[in-house]
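SEQUENCE AND FOLD
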Amino acid sequence: MDGPRVVEAVGYQPAALRGRSLPLLLSLADGRLALTKLMGNPQTTRALIADLVMTRLGRLVGAPVPEPLLVHVPSARLCDIPPLRIRPWISGLQYGAVFAGGAVPVEPLSDSEKLINLQTLPLAAMLETWIDNTDLKASHLLAVPGPAGPSLLVVDHGHALPGAPRWTPATLAAGLASAPDLSALTALARAARRHFDFRAALDALLAVTEDQLADLVAGVPRAWGLPASHAESLLGFLLRRQVALPAWGRQLAAQWSV
């Protein structure tokens, strides 16, 4: 599996962004924008690790998540970008998600039938269950405009994993059976008033191999400080949660059919 793409940051776009990780909107050398979380943020690099690994996992299975990047911010750029002069940020590779211009939070009652990729809703729900995203909320479900109509995008996976954002092997072990709050996705599913097929979603998630998961974990930059023992715990957590997905899928399918 190819590693995450690395793109150079070349500038800063002022934007009213919210989040405890203090993200920035950075201009990239390829002409795109990336919502970027940096080393030195209050939530530590554990949030960057969760975001990178889980968003790459989402892309692997075809879930509606942003394109993840590694954004290189050289030391000289720290002085060029005003917000980076305020905190002791660390230069190097940061986590970035390609910015979806024009995206707005989904309104379940008015948007549910307009979303052109609504069929991916079970896949999104099962992915968020697998990774135990503890911060899945309505403001993280976006409608992204496009020529064929708006599409659903689930953003921000920095709070995936039990104990997030400062998860440890101990919190992963203690949270093996925990289930996230999926009420935001459930509201969207119920507003759509249609049958959702969970079989294809489960097939896609269960087809992910141990080697693929190991590659995702191995793609974490060394500078983010993930010890080998913690990487092993993260891989073990994902493998053990994967086995439980069919049972969670049956429960969720029953809830959405009400």
In short: The mean pLDDT is 93.
